[in-house]
């Protein structure tokens, strides 16, 4: 599922409740996060619910330096799991440079998701975006 697919599906859903259910379904479609990745190091601080994001560098090409990253994640809250799925769709197939420059929160606003999130969920989303950007920046610097 790409962010363009999500945009198109959102355009078909007029009711916020339908969009909410759709986001939850996106989250249910994420592969389960292996228990060994549910560590303190992978836990995202600043989220009201439990959130784990695991990233690892991916090397594409012969340079031997990571230019992309793989992401896995989960949450104990269904809606947050869905927000993770939307984030992953936003960053999918992007280089590390593109990830750092991508305004994920702007895309959430464009989708109308931002205005329907509680302050706690908005803070958690900001923490997840910050974590993904920091991981990408660390991989760029390595």
Helices and strands, in order, run as: HHEEHHHH
Global structural class:
mainly alpha
> What's the quaternary structure here?
single chain
Query: Helicity range of the residues?
Result: 40-55%
**Average pLDDT taken over every residue:** 93
End-to-end separation in angstroms reads: 30 Å
How is the topology of this model organized?
Blueprint: H1 3-12, H2 16-28, E1 51-58, E2 68-75, H3 78-91, H4 96-101, H5 104-111, H6 119-141
Antiparallel strand pairs: 1-2
General description of the model:
The protein has a two-stranded antiparallel sheet. Helix 2 packs across helix 3 (78-91) and helix 3 packs parallel to helix 6 (119-141). It is mostly helical and 142 residues long. The chain has helices spanning 3-12, 16-28, 78-91, 96-101, 104-111, 119-141, and strands at 51-58, 68-75. It starts with a helix and ends with a helix.
Could you name the key traits of this structure?
142 residues, mainly alpha, two-stranded antiparallel ribbon, globular
Compact overview of the structure:
The chain is mainly α. It has helices spanning 3-12, 16-28, 78-91, 96-101, 104-111, 119-141, and strands spanning 51-58, 68-75.
């Amino acid at each position: 599922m790409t962010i363009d697919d999500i945009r198109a599906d959102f355009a078909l859903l007029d009711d916020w409740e339908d969009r909410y259910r759709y986001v939850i379904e996106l989250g249910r479609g994420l592969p389960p996060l292996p228990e060994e990745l549910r560590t303190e190091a992978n836990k995202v601080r600043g989220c009201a619910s439990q959130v784990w994001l695991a990233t690892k560098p991916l090397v594409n090409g012969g340079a031997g330096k990571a230019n992309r990253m793989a992401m896995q994640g989960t949450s104990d809250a269904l809606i947050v799991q869905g927000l993770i799925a939307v984030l992953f769709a936003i960053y999918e197939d992007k280089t590390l440079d593109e990830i750092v420059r991508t305004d994920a929160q702007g895309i959430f606003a464009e989708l109308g998701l931002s205005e329907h999130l509680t302050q706690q969920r908005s803070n958690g989303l900001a923490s997840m975006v910050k974590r993904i950007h920091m991981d990408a920046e660390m991989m760029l610097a390595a």
